[in-house]
């Protein structure tokens, strides 16, 4: 029993795979070419046969069949109505093909009416047709190729079924997991301190020097006013008053007033100098001058950030 089973499995594994279906066979029947010149008809028939062979069909031309027939049989095949099922069956039987293709090539005022109709030989039934009206003569071959593509695709599906789906490729294996490494945060780079300019500091000595000078002037006037007061207080007596006492008193008051004004202005100058020296600076403006020589003249400009 085990030997028989092993032999059956061996034969099954060695059995050939199912053979692909044979290619479709088609008879290129006489065309329906009302009004078309004979050379155009002959060239169109040859083009249709080449397109059918290029698509893998076994092609039989009606000219190769009629040479072996009697004159009466030949006339019957060539003159039968190719829209009737009986005519299609006769053509298919004569060519021994599965399909019969009839090219249409009628010449009208608006151009050629081109296309193709394809029938099954066993019952003469129409499988499909594809017709294009208003075709110019230089477009005949392209139009016939388009019609052959359309009818052959439908006929192949009708007689052989839809084409097998392409094998699905196996998905690639997933990539190996990558161990996550926690990156250490980078320390931020220290930003360079912006350059600070103090435009008033360089001039702070001017009000300070002026204030100091005014303080000195105020001191001189203060001392003069003290001297005048001393003269009025010591030199004069009730019995012998000073002759110029009024002028001396007026001069002392004037010196006292000037000393106060000088002290006030001097103090203001000193304060102004200190403020100008201690004021906070501003970031330096990165402005760079540029110059260029161009044809016919020159150019001067500034580049950078302005406030």
UniProtKB/TrEMBL annotation:
The organism's place on the tree of life at top rank: Bacteria
Region listing for Disordered, in residue ranges: 159-194
Pro residues bias (residue ranges): 161-178
Keyword annotations of the record: Membrane, Signal, Transmembrane, Transmembrane helix
Annotated TM spans: 203-223, 261-279
Position of the signal peptide: 1-17
Protein name (Swiss-Prot/TrEMBL): TPM domain-containing protein
Natural source organism: Corallococcus macrosporus DSM 14697
Phylogenetic placement of the source organism: Bacteria, Pseudomonadati, Myxococcota, Myxococcia, Myxococcales
């Amino acid at each position: 029993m085990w030997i028989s089973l092993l032999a059956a499995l061996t034969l099954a594994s060695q059995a050939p795979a199912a053979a692909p279906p044979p290619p479709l066979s088609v008879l290129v029947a006489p065309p329906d070419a009302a009004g078309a010149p004979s050379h155009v008809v002959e060239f169109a028939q040859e083009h249709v046969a080449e397109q059918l062979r290029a698509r893998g069909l076994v092609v039989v031309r009606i000219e190769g069949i009629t040479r072996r027939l009697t004159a009466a049989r030949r006339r019957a095949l060539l003159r039968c109505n190719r829209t009737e099922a009986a005519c299609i069956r006769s053509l298919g039987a004569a060519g021994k093909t599965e399909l019969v293709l009839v090219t249409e090539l009628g010449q009208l005022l608006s151009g050629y009416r081109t296309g193709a109709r394809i029938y099954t030989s066993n019952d003469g039934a129409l499988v499909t047709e594809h017709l294009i009206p208003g075709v110019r003569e230089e477009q005949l071959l392209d139009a016939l190729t388009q019609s052959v593509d359309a009818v052959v695709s439908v006929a192949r599906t009708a007689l052989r079924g839809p084409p097998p789906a392409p094998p699905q490729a196996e998905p690639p294996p997933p990539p190996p997991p990558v161990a996550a490494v926690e990156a250490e945060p980078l320390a931020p780079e220290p930003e360079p301190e912006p350059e600070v300019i103090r435009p008033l500091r360089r001039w702070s000595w001017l009000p300070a020097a002026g204030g100091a000078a005014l303080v000195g002037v105020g001191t001189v006037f203060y001392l003069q006013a003290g001297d005048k007061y001393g003269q009025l207080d010591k030199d004069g007596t009730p019995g012998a008053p000073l002759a110029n006492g009024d002028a001396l008193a007026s001069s002392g008051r004037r010196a006292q007033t000037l000393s106060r004004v000088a002290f006030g202005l001097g103090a203001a100058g000193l304060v102004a100098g200190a403020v100008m020296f201690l004021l906070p600076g501003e970031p330096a403006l990165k402005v760079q001058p540029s110059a260029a020589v161009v044809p016919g003249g020159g150019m001067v400009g500034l580049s950078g950030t302005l406030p």
